[in-house]
Design a protein that fits this description.
- The protein is mostly helical.
- It has 6 helices and no strands.
- It has a domain at 65-136.
- It has helices spanning 4-16, 25-32, 36-42, 54-62, 68-84, 94-136.
- The chain is flat and about 65 Å long.
- The two termini are 28 Å apart.
Length: 143
């Protein structure tokens, strides 16, 4: 069974290719922006599934409900984002208000990703662990 380091190393070699090999720039961009390495970094439990079953397992795991810690965390992330991106629109013209709203949006999205994203990852990882437990535990028919 190969390790995560071996998988990432082989992925890197597939992007770079052998020394002296030429690759189409579109191929390099497509391989580099593939979501597979990011999924393996965010969800190490995904390695325990067969490669062809990983997408289905990830979809099932992310369909689970949030627990109270995740809901509170997401609420706090939203509250902090709102507090940090507030602005006073008094004395601003229409164009200035529109520009401030666009700037706030540009700041708020990464802020929400940084503050709320870990709670989504936590939910999915919890779902993957539940799938692995259900897969490894014997069913009533097996007893």
């Amino acid at each position: 069974m190969d390790t995560f380091r071996t998988r990432v190393g082989s992925y890197t070699k597939s992007i770079m290719g052998p020394i002296g090999a030429t690759r189409n720039p579109q191929q390099i961009i497509a391989m580099a922006t593939s979501t597979r390495p990011w999924k393996l970094l965010l969800y190490p439990e995904l390695q325990k599934f067969e490669p062809e079953a990983q997408e289905n397992a990830l979809r099932k795991a992310s369909d689970g409900s949030f627990d109270w810690i995740e809901l509170v965390g997401l609420g706090l992330a939203l509250l902090v984002t709102v507090l940090l991106t507030r602005y006073a629109g008094t004395g601003m013209g229409l164009v200035a208000r529109f520009g401030a709203a666009i700037a706030n949006f540009i700041v708020a999205i990464p802020l929400l990703l940084v503050l709320g994203g870990p709670f989504y990852v936590r939910r999915t990882r919890r779902g993957l662990r539940a799938l692995l437990t259900a897969r490894s535990s014997p069913t009533r028919e097996d007893k």
